[in-house]
User: Fold this.
Amino acid sequence: MLLPPIWQRWFLKTLQTSNLPPLVYDLDMPALTNLVKEWGEPAFRAKQIWQGLYKNIWTQPEDFSNLPKSLREKMSANLRFNVLSPTLKLDSTDGQTRKTLFKLPDGRQIEAVLMRYERRRTLCISTQVGCAMGCTFCATGQMGFSRHLSSGEIVAQVMYYARLLQEEDDVVTNVVLMGMGEPFHNYDNTMQAIDRLNDADGYNFGARRFTISTSGLVPAIRQFADEKRQVNLAVSLHAAEDAKRVSMMPINKRYNIEELIAACREYVQKTGRRITFEWALIHEVNDSPEEARKLAALLRGLLCHVNAIPLNPTTGYSGQPTTKERAAAFKAALEESGIPCTIRMRRGIDIQAGCGQLASRVD
Assistant:
């Protein structure tokens, strides 16, 4: 359930009125230019700082050797560069997944993940500390909601891993906003972060290499459709009937399946882009051919794709992942009904880095 607007405003105000200097990643180019001018510096210095941050991936004022020492001192005194303190790094046994626990300046913690594939380096990034949606099978939902991340705190996660990969002569290829939190509950900061990373004069990360995952906030889906962005959209569905979906995803009480699918059809109509539906396959709950046929009837005529993945275990949910055989039967039933489906490979389960497994922890 969404927090009342008064509480959302309180959290944002708390961030904005803190005594800490502004985070450099929170500044867009116009804001950075204005700040540089306030320091009595020429406007072109802002572009040098911007490119140092996002093209060279410099992490501290001392790295900006192309700037006068006096300007580097102003940057050091008036801006924050290091907002994420990695307190725990876990690598999966196959070496393909790394999860990092970051401490924020207010003491709260978030997790983000790097997944290595044959040709891709995908980041799973968080947009909130905790989550207000309360999905029963999700570790983040089980921990509840603490606060939104600022746009800069979202950007900083990407830049952290970009630096790590740069040291290996490698690069980020995809970013999925599927970590802790509901991105559309933190809509403005999420979109500002994407815009900052997409900027052609900076990190220049293509819009189509981002994917946003939502639990089904209908007004935000419609706003996203109106903006006609090239960013990919994924919707966590997990059930084709309201009663079952409500039992897993409380947001369905507010926006039922009929409303949700109508918004998804509107999105496809306005953008011409395919939409992805995510489906956690839970043993003998939503993994039968009959469930697949119900889903196919719901999605008929919609430009879409179903990403199904065996449920990732969490301590707060007793459901079990489907079997390989039941997953194959679910996929076959969907495809026989004309709905394309992929059974996704589970990654990082041994370090609780899979979908639905991220949660803050206190060491």
Notes: The CA atoms of residues 144 and 224 lie 25 Å apart. The mean pLDDT is 90. The first strand starts at residue 85 and ends at 91.
